[in-house]
Amino acid sequence: MKLSCGISVETQGNPDHPALVFLHGVGTDGTAWQPQLRAFADEFRVIAWHMPGYADSDPHAPLTFPDLATDLGNVLDNLEIETAHIIGHSIGGMVAQQFAASFPQRVHSLTLSATSPAFGKPDGEWQQEFVRKRLEPLEAGKTLADLAPKMVQELTGDTPDPVGISLALHSIQAVSNAAFAAGVRCIVGFDRRDNLPNLTMPVLVLSGAQDSNAPAAMMEKMASKIPDARYVCLDGVGHLGNLENPNAFNQTLRDFFATLKS
Hints:
Blueprint: E1 9-12, E2 19-23, H1 34-40, E3 45-49, H2 65-78, E4 84-89, H3 91-102, E5 107-113, H4 125-139, H5 144-155, H6 162-173, H7 177-187, E6 203-208, H8 216-224, E7 230-234, H9 241-244, H10 246-261
Parallel strand pairs: 2-3, 2-4, 4-5, 5-6, 6-7
Antiparallel strand pairs: 1-3
């Protein structure tokens, strides 16, 4: 459904239950969280947003992380949610970090999946190559629907769940070129390393052992900078852990949430 703030969301569960808010990656939309929405709807109010420009969400030009954090706050306001468990994947994990820096009082817990605390500087040589490599096919006339099979192959580990892979393909194919390009350009320059020691809410850092985009060693180092963070690495998983092995991903979340009740 589309909220009055201009953001579309997928939502399930009882509005009176604690809220889980899922933030997707740059190459997918909110539908990529379907295995988690189904798994947690009995116990939680579950929400997966479509980032600005994705699905029916109004676009921004350009996307910035402070604006995205404000957008997320507006989503919570529209849904009358004061605090939530925030789960972010890839660029969604960066949005989650920015939101935790800007509005820490609204974050009950933070899960950072296959993401990074920093990407560098917008005019850096490596960062510009990152943008060029991802946008060049679009400028040559390709769409995300054309690129989805190769993207999924490059992003996943050795033995991904077939149902999850089908969902990944569907989610990527639904993303417009404009949304993907805006997201890619937004990532470049992200840096919230300074705020890692200030994340005093419960934090789970979740990596995939076969993820080349957000390597496990980097994720573990990030976790070491966050006070009392819980770090988990999923074996055999690449960049799309929630889809490649949804059972292991969901159980890791359940185990984390269980520690918050004790």
